Please model this.
Amino acid sequence: SAAWINLATGGGGWELRMKYKYIRRSGKMNSSPVTAMAEVVGVQSGCTYTIKIPVADYDGDNVKCRWASSGLGECDGVCQAFPGSFLNERTCELQYNSRGQNTGYYAVAIQIEDFAYSTDTVPLSSIP
Model:
């Protein structure tokens, strides 16, 4: 494998895709959401965790998280490669139950998106 680290599941090819709408709203250009998430988060085997993904949007848009999609070219071999996990898309919290899971490294492919209104279904921007 050409991956930078051996994974417990998934791997092979990796993809990252960012989308940005270059539009002016309220006199300012759209600002895509950002995160300050650590690249590697360590957890103990046999436990349950809630991992809060810290997100912000400097122009105050609504921010949601979702699993990256292979159909959109966002993750390739690491799509849905985190068994025992659940993503709350509204709060950007990742719940993980490590009981019964293989120990090792897992890639978690998530897109962080901003929306002008909470009811919008098409994001202004999408970042990995």
Notes: The longest strand covers residues 62-67. The chain has a mean pLDDT of 88. The CA atoms of residues 50 and 95 lie 4 Å apart.
